[in-house]
Amino acid sequence: MAGHHDPKLLYTIANVKAYHIQGGEEQDLTPSGPQTLSLLMVPTSSPFSDLSSTIPQNEIPENDFYLHLNLPPELDLPMPATTQVYHQPPHSYLIPRWDLGADSGIFTRITFDKNISSEDHDTFETILAQCTAFLERAAPPKPSRPLEQYDPKDYAPGGKHHDAKGAGHGQVVLIDEDNGSVIGELAGDAHIVEDSSLNQGTKSMSHPPIPTSLPD
Question: How many helices (H) and strands (E) does the chain have?
Answer without folding.
Answer: 1, 11
